[in-house]
Every structure is written in structure tokens, then in C-alpha cells.
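Folding Task

Wanted — backbone structure
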Amino acid sequence: MRTHLARVATIAFAVSALSSCGGDGGGSTPNAPSSPNAVTITILRQNGQQSFSPNPASVGGQTVVFRNSDSLVHRVRLNDGSIDTGDIAPGATSAAVRMPGSGTHYHCSLHTDMIGAVNASGGTPPPECEGPYCGGIY
């Protein structure tokens, strides 16, 4: 009997540990691990420049996380495709990513009217936005 209980406890522990290490495969978890010094950019789901806060963010060269404060899933992607957060569920935070020091532009790939920018390190404006996700704003 004692051996049987030990096996059941071991199996229960293993199942619990394995399920907690899983993920949704999309880069979104309610408490995503991040750098302790990561800056948070909040996803607001308005449109255009009002979709993210702060925007532009003065985080060139820094580590950031995106916090989804909306009721819809979002997916942040740099316009050049070099960073993709994966899907970020409502209330969840993305994994930490390091922004280019030269500044950049990004958008929600699920809602392409949502656009944002990152100032270069030192606070200078990002390079001019090019491509279909610019909306003529930056």
C-alpha cells in the first residue's frame, strides 16, 4: 500500500511539473519570465498611435515586455520582422525582447491599424517608418 501511494504521489508531482513548464506556444503567459529591468509597453487597442503606451517608447537598446490590457489577443511584430512576440492573450505579458538601439517601428500583426515606435537609445527619434504598417504617422 505504501509503495502504491508513493507511486501515485510521484506521478502527480511529475504531471504537475510538466504541465507548468508548458505554454501555449505563442509567447504569451500570464506571468511570463522577463528581465527584472524590462520596461513594460502596454497594449491598449485603440488605433494608430494610441494603440500602445508609451508611444513612442524611449527604449532603444533596452529589454521590454508587452502587457496586453485589452480583451483581444494581440501579436507584436517589428516592421522588419526581426522580433515577433507570438500571441499575447488578454491580461498576459510577452516574453522579454531587446529592442534595437537604433530605434524601430512595430505593429500588431493581428490588427494592422495598431502601430508603435521605439526611439533610439539616447532618445533620438526612430528612423523614418517605411512599409505598409506606417499609416503615414511616423
The chain has one helix and ten strands.
